[in-house]
Amino acid sequence: MNTEFVAALEQLNRELGIPLDELIRSVEQALADAYRRAFDPPGYVTVKIDPSTAEMAVTSRTYDAQGQEVLTPLPTDDFARMAAQAAKSAVLRHIRNLEREKSVLEAGEHRGELATGVIDRVENGTVYLDMGGRAEGVMPPEEQIPGEEIRPGKPMLVVILDTKRTARQPQVQVSRASRLFVRRLLEAEVPEIKNGAVTIKAIAREPGLRSKVAVYAEDPAIDAVGACVGPKGVRHRSLLAELGHEHIDFVPWSEDPAAFTAAAVGPASVVDVVLDRTTNTALLNVPPGQLSLAIGKDGQNARLAAKLTGWRIDIKPALAQADVQNPS
């Protein structure tokens, strides 16, 4: 080793804030690995660098027949030229690792937030996005909106779910299919949600097909559903454009489960609701002509209503008045 190299480590310590002892440990480990590969000495090789003198000591640790540790100094003359390159590589690798860790930490600070990425490539159904920084966005198939156009170069709005550490570069898992994505879109689009005047109570979603969002306003003067739809439906249309025209129902939340379950099967109307709290089932009677509307295609409307409310939904046609008066 030489004093110039130690001076370079001290400069990195000052400029990047990397502790000097961390840098020296990285260099010592790299030198020990390089020495072992070059000379294959017996025992466990360790390298120690004296930062004040830049002197390097290489030692082999073995054990004698009595199990006592034996430390044997190893020659370093033939290793000097190789040591300089190994030390340089170790420092560069350490800096890359620190930068990678910093990127992961920075991405973690934005967990749960919306972010824009540009599609870089698609591999085995997984979409990789350039997030505009050191971290790479990763969106597996289950986090994508089914049927959505995926092509390299296309900008895409996503929500950050979590960070991932990989050997190549830091990654963040992102999503467009999660309920959190819909929540963040609403918070960005509806001022009343952002300022707390309207609260999102629950979201049920089948990505690419339909979502139901239960909203509530403490102030009776505020129409929670109307606020989400926006003047002349402008906010609703903006959401549909971002979600690939996935249909969204806004449902007025109520602490009365009968009222809430009835609203949840909208746009169908409900004649009456019978609650069975022992089985957590809500029997909804609807006009005969609206039975298919209440159930929805492939049962989707009823299924989402159940997810939204937490009640099992049973939908039946209400008896006509003549049938009630003349049962037979």
How is this structure best summarized?
The protein has 328 residues and is of the alpha+beta class.
Strand order of the largest sheet: 4-5-6-8-7
What is the CATH C-level name of the largest domain? Alpha Beta
Percent helix among the residues? 25-40%
- CATH homologous superfamily annotation of the largest domain: NusA, N-terminal domain
Tally of helical runs: 11
Number of strands: 14
Radius of gyration: 32 Å
Mean pLDDT: 86
The dominant shape is elongated
Q: What can be said about the biggest beta sheet? A: 5 strands, mixed, barrel
Low-confidence stretches: none
Q: What is the CATH architecture term of the largest domain?
A: 2-Layer Sandwich
Strand fraction equals: 25-35%
Summing up helix and strand content along with how strands pair, one would put the structural category as alpha+beta
How far from one another are the termini? 103 Å
CATH topology of the largest domain: N Utilization Substance Protein A, Chain:P, domain 4
**What number of structural domains do the residues give?**
4
Which H/E pattern describes the elements? HHEEEHEEEEEHHEEHHEHEEHHEH
